[in-house]
Amino acid sequence: MRTSLNAPDPREDPLRLDHQLCFQFYAASNLIGRLYAPVLARLNLTYPQYLVMLVLWEEDAQSVGAIGKRLHLDTGTLTPLLKRMEALGHLSRQRDREDERRVRVSLTASGKALREEALHVPEIMTRGQDLEELDALRRTLAGVVEALCGGKAQA
Amino acid sequence: MRTSLNAPDPREDPLRLDHQLCFQFYAASNLIGRLYAPVLARLNLTYPQYLVMLVLWEEDAQSVGAIGKRLHLDTGTLTPLLKRMEALGHLSRQRDREDERRVRVSLTASGKALREEALHVPEIMTRGQDLEELDALRRTLAGVVEALCGGKAQA
DNA sequence: GCCTATTAAATTGTGCGCAATATAAATTGC
DNA sequence: GCAATTTATATTGCGCACAATTTAATAGGC
């Protein structure tokens, strides 16, 4: 549905920023991170650190690789991040006796206790939103994520 | 709809990673960046640099602030990024004569020429996908982004 | 058993993101 | 006009992300 002859409708330009789905993900992810920061700062956590805590609160003493598989992050990101969290007292890292290649990441007492403080974070962040709508979007995006990492393997 | 007595359905745990909409955005954004990287590397661009080029291909000679408003990035991110792009020969930065506070960012000849190479990037990245579906998702996410930055001002 | 291949983390180097601060130019008030 | 405020960019410091490489331990083939 061109407007006329060879003059291309600028709205059909494939390189228009507003046409890029990837940019909406990029912008939303950055903006969400900025929204969480002040809330998580009160728990002495950054946003990626909060995600690690979510993984460990579900199941303690996981390996670095298991955490990485869950969050789609590699050791280049996780190793220094986990060291910072260890320094903050949230968790401890120790080589697995059974398999010395592995490092088990375990919550400290304060790391476990922090879960109580974190319980209200989801509520704060979704306050005033339509929860049904957010959940529908979450399911849609979970499918996108699945497709993105399912396409390039991912056990 | 609890299963029994005081045993909470683990699926209702508000801190479950899979329940977090924010995580789906985070994971998708990271995975998308990883998918674009090898394609953009052939244009000598990173993903954020590609976004800057999209902005400048739409309208050349914009100020740092105008680019930042479009991408939701501040000068702490943009200034060094633009300097790297200048060093790569994609663009030039010069103080505005009218208002010496401003810095105008202009495409070089090779930066303009790079647009031809970039024209097929969206097609490569969306190959095999349902374009109607992607566009519906893009519109949904554009609304989310709008709500996220509309809530905290944004002129 | 021994050698090769595989697996798990750590390390290195580069490029973002962003809060906080600094610097400097334009605008406003009076 | 000139001080005070506002606006635009740069700088500093820290914490991710990630590709590529390295180191070390286990598993497999023979």
Give the helices and strands, then pairings.
2 copies of one chain form a homodimer.
Chain A: H1 21-41, H2 47-58, E1 62-63, H3 64-71, H4 75-87, E2 91-95, E3 103-107, H5 109-118, H6 121-126, H7 131-151
Chain A binds a DNA duplex (30 and 30 nucleotides) through residues 30, 33-34, 37, 46-49, 63-65, 73-81, 84, 99-103.
Descriptive notes:
Two copies of one chain form a homodimer. Chain A has 155 residues and is mainly alpha-helical. Chain A has a domain at 48-121: Arc Repressor Mutant, subunit A (Orthogonal Bundle), CATH 1.10.10.10. The first copy, chain A, is built from seven helices and three strands. A three-stranded antiparallel beta sheet of chain A has the order 1-3-2. The radius of gyration of chain A is 20 Å and the shape is globular. The N and C termini of chain A lie far apart (44 Å). At the A-B interface, α1, α2, α6 and α7 of A face α1, α2, α6 and α7 of B. The first copy, chain A, binds a DNA duplex (30 and 30 nucleotides) through residues 30, 33-34, 37, 46-49, 63-65, 73-81, 84, 99-103.
